[in-house]
Amino acid sequence: MTPRAYNFSAGPAALPLEVLEQAAREMTNWRGSGMSVMEMSHRGPEFISIAAQAEADLRELLSVPSDYAVLFLQGGGLGENAIVPLNLMGEKARADYLITGSWSAKSVEEARRFGEVNVVAEASKPYCGMPAPEHWRTNSQAAYFHLCTNETIDGVEIHELPFEAVPSGVPIVADVSSHILSRPLDINRYGCIYGGAQKNIGPAGLTLAIVRRDLLGRAHAMCPSVFNYQLLDQSGSMYNTPPTYGIYIAGLVFQWLKRQGGLAAIEAMNVAKAQALYDVLDRGGLFYNRVDPAYRSRMNVTFFLRDEGLNQAFLDGAKAQGMVQLKGHRSVGGMRASIYNAVPLQAVQTLVSYMNEFERTHG
């Protein structure tokens, strides 16, 4: 049997082995029901119990208060770039957007289809940090303030958002796709967080949105009913057939996270994994990282070789040692190690050892 690779993919990404093994055991017969989860009616008691448990566990992990709706839907993170303004711009039809990388720039372009977008500030390219808050040009009349708190492509993460720089009363909306559940999050500071599941939650096809309920009921007339946050909340995310298997796997991941000790424990592990990689990048050898240290992502560690002619040799050697998906995004090049919750410390240690060896043989 071929051993499992150390998978550094940015998404769809690695899932916990325990989760995959449990799903395999339950594939054809979920808990004596005689059915696979993929075969169940989304309105039947079996799947209703799966969805209810998944929501309860997620609320526990993130300490989500009762005045927030937890929504499971489809469309992916990029789809949410349209779904958010369609639901939240309301009569104001204007919103503030902060650009810190490739994904927040995409969010701006999509939102402009539905209303007026004020770019609060844009980081210079190549993206390597967050513009200083004193240079932000905010609008106190904006329907919301949007940002991406972890830029998957560029490896930029906002660890501490300067909440005081956002005008009072303007809800903060965050794309948290690639670092949700990697650390504790104070949901009370946000009006809405959203993200695709395929990084730290589950398989591609499922999208999560957590929305403060006082922001519901503002949907634009052109918003499709299946993406209307209020209708989804009222129907328990069952307005139409949801991505049932994705919700099931997400629920298993939530339970796995609880067994690891919750988000504080998983954050400590993520800090250790990221630090091990950045230590290699900071010593001035063949590899380097160009992100401001204050904004380095713990989830997506981007790096480059000083001699780019060695790129393919590095990737080929990594694959030979069981490490895959290390090539950087096509728009920025270089390398990228995505070290989400399910990527074990041993995988990072193996990568670090290989980088050390590569430097000795190619330096």
Quick tags:
363 residues; 2 domains; seven-stranded mixed β-sheet; 33% helix; alpha/beta; three-stranded antiparallel β-sheet
Give a structural overview.
The protein is an alpha/beta fold and 363 residues long. It folds into two domains: 18-259, Type I PLP-dependent aspartate aminotransferase-like (Major domain) (Aspartate Aminotransferase, domain 2), CATH 3.40.640.10; 262-362, Aspartate Aminotransferase, domain 1. It has nine helices and 14 strands. The chain has helices spanning 17-25, 45-62, 76-88, 102-111, 229-234, 244-259, 263-281, 311-320, 345-362; strands spanning 6-7, 68-73, 94-99, 116-122, 145-148, 150-151, 156-157, 172-175, 192-196, 207-212, 287-288, 300-305, 323-324, 335-338. The strands form four sheets. Strands 2-10-9-8-5-3-4 form a seven-stranded mixed β-sheet. The protein has a three-stranded antiparallel β-sheet with strand order 11-12-14, with helices on one face. A two-stranded parallel sheet has the order 1-13. A hairpin with a 4-residue loop joins strand 6 and strand 7. Helix 2 packs across helix 6. The protein is globular, with a radius of gyration of 21 Å. The model has no long low-confidence stretch (mean pLDDT 96).
Please identify the top-level CATH class of the largest domain. Answer: Alpha Beta
> What count of structural domains?
2
Separate helix tally: 9
Question: What is the terminal separation in angstroms?
Answer: 36 Å
Radius of gyration: 21 Å
* CATH architecture identity of the largest domain: 3-Layer(aba) Sandwich
Structural class: alpha/beta
- CATH H-level superfamily of the largest domain: Type I PLP-dependent aspartate aminotransferase-like (Major domain)
Give the beta-strand count: 14
